[in-house]
Design goal:
The protein has about 100 residues and is of the alpha+beta class. The protein is built from one helix and four strands. The protein has a four-stranded antiparallel beta sheet, with no helix packed on it. It is elongated.
Length: about 100
């Protein structure tokens, strides 16, 4: 019984380390590269919490410095819309369902 437990322990240790090794033929991934800079002239202060809309190629981010949500078209390289008036009390945005 002790031999069987030792066998399973060794199999678990060496098997898990063998499975965690990188594949020898797998290509290395490229690092993130800066492609473009898009100016946001109407934004002051801190920018936080981004999301990306891949279908429309837009980035939506919260500009906390001036209490707006900015919509940036990455294809055109410009700020296309600014949503003002998010709640200043508490954190985050809330959607009201009617």
């Amino acid at each position: 019984m002790k031999r069987l437990a030792t066998f399973w322990l060794m199999l678990l240790m060496f098997g898990s380390s063998a499975l965690s090794q990188d594949q020898p033929g797998a290509p290395d991934r490229a690092p993130l590269l800066l492609v473009q800079q898009i100016p946001l002239p109407n934004v002051g202060g801190r920018i936080d919490h981004f999301t990306f809309d891949g279908k429309r190629k837009r980035v939506i981010g919260a500009a906390l410095g001036n209490n707006t949500v900015e919509v940036v078209d990455t294809f055109a390289g410009r700020d296309i819309h600014s949503i003002s008036g998010p709640p200043t009390s508490g954190r985050g945005l809330r959607r009201r369902v009617q």
